[in-house]
Description:
Elements: E1 2-8, H1 13-22, E2 27-34, H2 41-54, E3 63-65, H3 79-82, H4 104-114, E4 119-124, H5 128-136, E5 144-150, H6 166-170, H7 172-179, E6 185-188, H8 190-196, E7 198-199, H9 201-208, H10 213-221, H11 223-233, E8 238-239, H12 241-250, E9 255-261, E10 263-265, E11 276-278, E12 290-296, H13 298-309
Parallel strand pairs: 1-2, 1-4, 2-3, 4-5, 5-6, 6-12
Antiparallel strand pairs: 7-8, 9-12, 10-11
Helix pairs in contact: 1-2, 1-12, 4-5, 5-7, 8-12
This protein binds alpha-D-ribofuranose and calcium ion.
The site of alpha-D-ribofuranose has 17 residues, from helix 1, helix 6 and helix 12.
Amino acid sequence: xxxxxxxxxxxxxxxxxxxxxxxxxxxxxxxxxxxxxxxxxxxxxxxxxxxxxxxxxxxxxxxxxxxxxxxxxxxxxxxxxxxxxxxxxxxxxxxxxxxxxxxxxxxxxxxxxxxxxxxxxxxxxxxxxxxxxxxxxxxxxxxxxxxxxxxxxxxxxxxxxxxxxxxxxxxxxxxxxxxxxxxxxxxxxxxxxxxxxxxxxxxxxxxxxxxxxxxxxxxxxxxxxxxxxxxxxxxxxxxxxxxxxxxxxxxxxxxxxxxxxxxxxxxxxxxxxxxxxxxxxxxxxxxxxxxxxxxxxxxxxxxxxxxxxxxxxx
Length: 314
Ligand code: RIB
Ligand code: CA
């Protein structure tokens, strides 16, 4: 049984990513931790709790609120991408389960220390909580099995600025700490998600026709994200960056080309704040500090997703 901690700024696709892990028979979700990012912090907490309930895990998977702000900077939430509630303006009722009292950073540290070399951390949000956990207990670095993160770009095709992807842009200082900590890392960058993790109109229509509670939920929470992508890029599709990242954890064969690279992040300049520099030609002559995903199997990802959306255990 794979043990995971999922760090999330729960809105839109974050919920599908959570559902995939919560519905996997091979995975035990030790904790869901909430980091500032997509929408108002308390709303993100409610969105995670609602998703846990919908997945049938109410009371079994704890949700820990964490960093309400990045380490040093201000950022803007993106209600225009995910809706006012982050859930496609669905305004779901509050779940019965309530958030834990313990801070996400302490929950991460405790879970990793209790299960040395067993916990995979999935970062589908800015990395403030993880960076704080590493600063508070540096020993956890060698006890984390691996961190998979949805974030950054392989070749500077950003979604929030031309240079940067949102999760890394929000807290580049946290990313700096994590990138240079020595922890095992796998990066799933924005272009890879846009290439292999986009659901096109025929696939969306197939999901609509399922009429399960999972598929109805998926369509609702991603409705504003679909409109936003169409308006901003002309592409009619639902982007699933966090979901394809979780899918790679559940089935590593979904990542079909992975290379070891040295990657740094710009936390110095304003214009390229949060840009991830992948040293493709090894011109810095530095030891690789992470694995970077270059190609993925969309068909394997889609099969896994469809199974979950049909209400099946994956
Ligand atoms: O840039 C995409 C990422 O930023 C996703 O994790 C999305 O949920 C937002 O957090
Ligand atoms: Ca996210």
